[in-house]
Amino acid sequence: MRAWTSPGPGRLPGAAIGPEVQVHDSATGGLRESRPGSGAARLYVCGITPYDATHLGHAATYVAFDLLQRAWRSAGHDVRYVQNVTDVDDPLLERAAATAQDWEELAERETELFRTDMEALRVLPPDAYVGAVEAIPLIVPMVEQLVETGSVYEVGGEHGTDLYFAVAHDPAFGEVSGWTREQMLEVFADRGGDPERPGKKDPLDCLVWQAARPGEPAWDSPLGRGRPGWHVECSAIARQHLDVAAHGPIDVQGGGSDLVFPHHEMSASEAQVLDGHRFAAAYVHAGMVGLDGEKMSKSKGNLVLVSRLREAGEDPMAIRLLLLAHHYRSDWTYVDADLEAARERLARWRAALDRDAGAPTADLVREVLEALAADLDAPRALALVDCWAQTEPPAGTGEAGSADVVRALLDASLGLAL
Predict the structure, then answer these.
(1) Do domains 21-318 and 322-328+337-414 have the same CATH topology?
(2) How far is CA 327 from the centre of its chain?
(3) CATH class of the 21-318 domain in this structure
(4) Measured between alpha carbons, how far is 207 from 270 in angstroms, rounded to an integer?
(5) Which of 18, 206, 233, 320 is the most buried (most CB within 10 A)?
(6) 3-state SS assignment for residue 212
């Protein structure tokens, strides 16, 4: 699948280099230094299910992991970034049926809209952008391997035989979320699980291959005609495109905090049964964005869409500043005043960059890079730039070329083109 285009990550001014990056690991509940070994830092971020993209919650997540890419690069590391697109799944098929649309056309249209939003927000594209449908040749062999280990079993039904992963086969199951079994069961059904299905060995076991249903897309395979489950899709794509067999655990598995369980828990366990080691060195999760007192979500329909803001004439850099003003791990609620504050900040910064000479920049560069290396503290970085922009040296005393330095810093570290 084609990703979007990008002007690239930009270059830090002069010989600047950032510190090694620390991120909050959901599995341990604390900060972990993300220092990649030999080769590139390896990042997998779960992508969209393309039936209604891109709301501010989506955008906040992908901007967060864009900051991680940039912080790694500032510290001198190359990055290998992989993202999926769940272009066949129940929510997509349900939306297509409800709106009398062809599911493939719906998926492609919304994926293309997502691409254009990411381009506008200057989010660095993945090196591999992989749809679930095109990943079926990777998913089927992985499920076959899981069958060989005895960790996948059959559950019969009126439409044929489905295959389920037995979570008990991973001794580390539960370590990604740290949740109790009771907490897991409380949300499993609402997050794509089927805990009450007859024939399952454990209510938490998850589907890896679904037999063909009448009127739904399906593909021939040695597993029978059907389609893959959600969790194994990401396991298979990440293991292949981030070469887990050769390099071991990936550096970061990322996504929104609503993916901690079951999605990241399940996808990690499926990989760990085969690989014998932790799937990711760190599990990093972005907070949820709300509107009118509830989490912004496609199922609720309470969405602020990036594309509609852009169509209304909003500067994409103001939208990006709006997102950067909130720490990536925080839950927050969108209000129109946030966007107005971002517009005003953007105007102040542009006015400061238009000066012939500005305040000294050496400390600014160092402190911004330090803030972003400290668990991607974008609000702290923005406050530092605010201070620089508000400091107007007496005539004739400013630092020549300071605007060029700050523009390069904002481009490379925060993804802002000013």
Answers:
(1) no
(2) 15
(3) alpha beta
(4) 11
(5) 233
(6) coil
Mean pLDDT calculated for residue range 139-150: 98
Give one DSSP letter per residue of 10-46, joined into a string.
Answer: ---STT--PPPEEEEETTTTEEEEE---SS-EEEEE-
Using alpha carbons only, give the angle 130, 133, 139 rounded to the nearest 5 degrees.
85
Q: What is the pTM of this model?
A: 0.96
A 10 A CB-CB count for 201 gives 12
Q: Strand 280-286 to strand 250-256: parallel, antiparallel, or no bridges (unpaired)?
A: parallel
Count, residues in the chain: 418
Please give the order of strands across the beta sheet that includes 41-45.
128-131, 79-85, 41-45, 250-256, 280-286
- 3-state SS string over 108-143? HHHHHHHHHHHHHCCCCCCCEEEECCCCHHHHHHHH
Determine phi and psi for 265, rounding to 5 degrees. Answer: -60, -45
How far apart (Å, rounded) are the C-alpha atoms in residues 245 and 397?
57
pLDDT tens-place string over residues 339-362? 999 999 999 999 999 987 889 999
**Helices 378-390 and 362-373, packing angle to 10 deg:** 160
For 250, the 3-state DSSP assignment is strand
Looking at residue 296, what is its pLDDT?
A: 65
Q: Which amino acid is at 288?
A: M
- The sign one gets for the Cα dihedral 246, 251, 255, 256 is positive
Alpha helices in 126-205 (DSSP H): 136-148, 181-188
The CATH code of domain 322-328+337-414 reads 1.20.120.640
* Displacement of CA 43 from its chain's centroid (Å): 9
Query: Which residues contact residue 12 at a Cβ distance below 8 angstroms, ignoring those fewer than 6 apart?
Result: 18, 74, 365, 369, 408, 409, 412, 413
Q: Using DSSP, state whether 207 is helix, strand or coil.
A: strand
CB 45, CB 62: distance < 8 Å: yes
Domain ranges of the chain: 21-318, 322-328+337-414
Q: What is the mean pLDDT of residues 361-378?
A: 97
Tokens of 349: 């910064």
Token pair recorded at residue 142? 């992985």
Max Cα-Cα span within the chain: 82
User: Phi and psi (nearest 5°) for 267?
Assistant: -65, -35
Three-class DSSP category at 291: strand
DSSP 356: S
